[in-house]
Amino acid sequence: MADAGAGSLHGGDSALSCLPEEQELSQRLRRLYPAVNQEETPLPRSWSPKDKYNYIGLSQGNLRVHYKGHGKNHKDAASVRATHPIPAACGIYYFEVKIVSKGRDGYMGIGLSAQGVNMNRLPGWDKHSYGYHGDDGHSFCSSGTGQPYGPTFTTGDVIGCCVNLINNTCFYTKNGHSLGIAFTDLPLPAMISNQFMELLQEYIQHLFKSNLYPTVGLQTPGEIVDANFGQQPFVFDIEDYMREWRAKIQGTIKRFPIGDRLGEWQAMLQNMVSSYLVHHGYCSTAAAFARITDTTIQEEQTSIKNRQRIQKLVLAGRVGEAIEATQQLYPGLLEHNPNLLFMLKCRQFVEMVNGTDSEVRCFSARSPRSQDSYPGSPNLSPRRGSNNSHVHSTGADSPTCSNGVLSTKIKQSCSKYQALSSSSSSSSSSSPSSVNYSESNSTDSTKSQQHSSTSNQETRHLAFLSFFYLSDSEMEMEAEHYPNGVLENSSTRIMNGTYKHEEILQTDESSMDNCPQRQLCGGNHAATERMIQFGRELQTLSEQLCREYGKNTMHKKMLQDAFSLLAYSDPWNCPVGQQLDPIQREPVCAALNSAILESQNLPKQPPLMLALGQASECLRLMARVGLGSCSFARVDDYLH
Amino acid sequence: MACVLEAPLRMSVLSEVTASSRHYVDRLFDLDPQKVLQGVMLLYLLQQETSSTELRTECAVVLGSLAMGTENNVKSLLDCHIIPALLQGLLSPDLKFIEACLRCLRTIFISPVTPEDLLYTDATVISHLMALLSRSRYTQEYICQIFSHCCKLQHWHSCGFKSLPQPLLCANGPDHQTILFNHGAVQNIAHLLVSTSYKVRMQALKCFSVLAFENPQVSMTLVNGKHKVLVDGELLPQIFVKMLQRDKPVEMQLTSAKCLTSMCRAGAIRTDDSCIVLKTLPCLVRMCSKERLLEERVEGAETLAYLIETDVELQRIASITDHLIVMLADYFKYPSSVSAITDIKRLDHDLKHAHELRQAAFKLYASLGANDEDIRKKIIETENMMDRIVNGLSESSIKVRLAAVRCLHSLSRSVQQLRTSFQDHAVWKPLMKVLQNAPNEILVVASSTLCNLLLEFSPSKEPILESGAIELLCSLTQSENLALRVNGIWALMNVAFQAEQKIKSDILRGLSTEQLFQLLSDSDVNVLMKTLGLLRNLLSTRPHIDHIMSTHGKQIMQAVTLILEGEHNIEVKEQTLCILANIADGTTAKELIMTNDDILQKIKYYMSHSNAKLQLAAMFCISNLVWNEEEGSQERQDKLRDMGIVDILHKLSQSSDPNLCDKAKTALQQYLA
Question: Using one digit for the tens of pLDDT, what is the confidence trace for B608-634?
Answer without folding.
Answer: 888 888 888 888 888 888 887 777 778
